[in-house]
Amino acid sequence: xxxxxxxxxxxxxxxxxxxxxxxxxxxxxxxxxxxxxxxxxxxxxxxxxxxxxxxxxxxxxxxxxxxxxxxxxxxxxxxxxxxxxxxxxxxxxxxxxxxxxxxxxxxxxxxxxxxxxxxxxxxxxxxxxxxxxxxxxxxxxxxxxxxxxxxxxxxxxxxxxxxxxxxxxxxxxxxxxxxx
Amino acid sequence: xxxxxxxxxxxxxxxxxxxxxxxxxxxxxxxxxxxxxxxxxxxxxxxxxxxxxxxxxxxxxxxxxxxxxxxxxxxxxxxxxxxxxxxxxxxxxxxxxxxxxxxxxxxxxxxxxxxxxxxxxxxxxxxxxxxxxxxxxxxxxxxxxxxxxxxxxxxxxxxxxxxxxxxxxxxxxxxxxxxx
DNA sequence: CCCATGTCAGTATCACTGAAATAA
DNA sequence: CTTATTTCAGTGGTACTGACATGG
Lengths: 180, 180
Fold this sequence. Notes:
- 2 copies of one chain form a homodimer.
- The first copy, chain A, has 180 residues and is mainly alpha-helical.
- Chain A contains 7 helices and 2 strands; from the N terminus they run ααααββααα.
- Chain A is 52% helix and 6% strand.
- Chain A has a two-stranded antiparallel sheet with strand order 1-2.
- In chain A, helix 2 (49-60) packs across helix 5 and helix 3 (66-73) packs across helix 4 (77-89).
- Residues 1-11, 159-171 and 175-180 of chain A have low confidence and may be disordered.
- Chains A and B meet through helix 1, helix 2, helix 3, helix 5 and helix 6 of A and helix 1, helix 2, helix 3, helix 6 and helix 7 of B.
- The first copy, chain A, binds a DNA duplex (24 and 24 nucleotides) through residues 32, 35-36, 38-40, 42, 48, 50-51, 65-67, 70, 75-83, 85-86, 101-105, 174, 176.
């Protein structure tokens, strides 16, 4: 039952955790921060973090399909179903049948959706912007590299590259149709 | 209804998103990766990511209280209650009444808990270790800085420092008793 | 009495698996 | 018929708020 290794001397839980664990703590702090902010957004904005991200992306690329969105957001299509339903129920998002493929729907923002989308106050994106602001270009690039590696290492073990071929988002990719 | 700004020319959803959004995509990729791995761990290990982190920390600091743990993990005490219950129900964790303060319980791993704790295969920690491995010290430090900033910016607006005094885990801090 | 610690009750979202419906 | 796209049903965990019990 390991008690304290990798460090020297007596340790206090609030200062030192061994190497990787320390990073884990930081990672969870960020993950929880994201989730907490997401929850707070619900009362302030009316939408959660993932929901707003959907609005944001659909705002940039009107007419996207659910599957496209799922691939971008790295979520399972069935997860997106629920998110979209809530957005539609709130009249923030609108689905229009795709004439060329009636399994799909083209997603667009409603006027209300656009309004919510325009609000940045207190969003995760705002926090990210604030955090990134005042960080050197070098550090940003480094963080990017590390996070990309991390995301890659967190991908399902199957089909996982040797950790050297980036391979892009592997998660729920399923593209097919000509890329718009 | 903004369509595409901040970038030049026609864009494809799978390549370019404007600045901060790009980072958002990466961030969500990591967050989802963490959650996905956590879920997968449930079937492979029997514990989720947060659950294992609790085991990990309690393994390092036996006798911790729930509140201490909540502060370290940056979660609300009531959230921890459920996590602890599941761990106790699985006989991975054991609570012993603290003689000096009977509201508290001292947490310890059971033998089974120690065994699970020792397993690293397929854990988030393993992925983090693998990702960090082969990253320069510089990049690690940079990432650390950025993530710390980010975590800070994601903290609730109240009691938030000027972004220069690290101030340790701010989230649900409520320490009181002498730090062991 | 007041504060601290922690649990309980209730609620919501997300995320998955696996199966099914619809369309290409 | 086979494949693609998406939804539906069911499950579980996390995380919160707010109230409450117990102890210092």
